[in-house]
Amino acid sequence: MTDMPFPPPADADDRRAIKPVICYPNETLPEAPMALYKAARETATKVDEVLIPARDARCFEVPAGQFFRISSVEGPQVGDLNLWNSKNLNERFFSGKTRALHGTHISTGERMWTSLPSLRPMATIVEDTLGWYGIDAYGGSVHDVIGTRCDPYTGNLLAGDHYHYCCHSNLTRALAAHTGISLREAEPYVHDVLNVFMCTGFTRDTGQYFMKASPVRPGDYLEFFAEIDLLGALSACPGGDCSSEHSSDTAACYPMLVEVFAPEEGALGDWKSPAVNGYDRSHGVPR
Known about the structure:
It is a single chain. The protein has one domain (32-262). By secondary structure, it is an alpha+beta fold. It has helices spanning 12-16, 34-42, 95-102, 152-159, 167-179, 183-186; strands spanning 45-52, 57-62, 67-72, 79-85, 88-92, 111-113, 121-128, 141-144, 194-202, 209-212, 221-226, 230-236, 256-262. The protein has six helices and 13 strands. It is 16% helix and 28% strand. A hairpin with a 7-residue loop joins strand 6 (111-113) and strand 7 (121-128).
């Protein structure tokens, strides 16, 4: 923190002692029908898989009503995940609102939400083999929605270099290759990520974002239910398990696996993909 030019007031301790208020109480959020998803998952068979090379990214597609699993293979590795509505790339994962609704890290039963004005569930976490980790003594936890993604612009700002295999660039290349649009067209669609398997938090003394070695091991996975038709992109971060660096040519890096599973026909009963948000979009202007 910067030096304070003014001394604290006499009631400084009283001001600090005021109890916090949760900004977005989430008790009224529509609950995910986890029992239904579990039953449907038991009938599901694998229909696709994509291997994400170390230090690179690939896209994958998941129709609404199917499941996808992100797994650690070969060695500890974290990944940066982008999700879009496969029919409209302008509707994408909204990490800030997901963080506001669920917290800094997400796990089983919690959802990834789409950007405004749609603001609806796009994917629900149904299984998390790292759910045991909780919050450690440093305030760290896994699967964060606080980090942005390693990018070449910040690298250039801090170190004056041009590192092309950071997650932002990996995701940009993957989206361009999958959709056939140019890199310049693809880049604005790349957005803040879900940091899959990454262990992160904020320091208590300076409030800085930190990372530490991920607890992930081969065989661990994070599995989701696709609430809408999804286009995903996953980057196997060049930081490996992010124990020391997140943009590095020397960190040990490993591939990651994305698998897609389709439940039997009728297994979801009368489930329907969530509608877009019901706000009338008048913004206070009479119609």
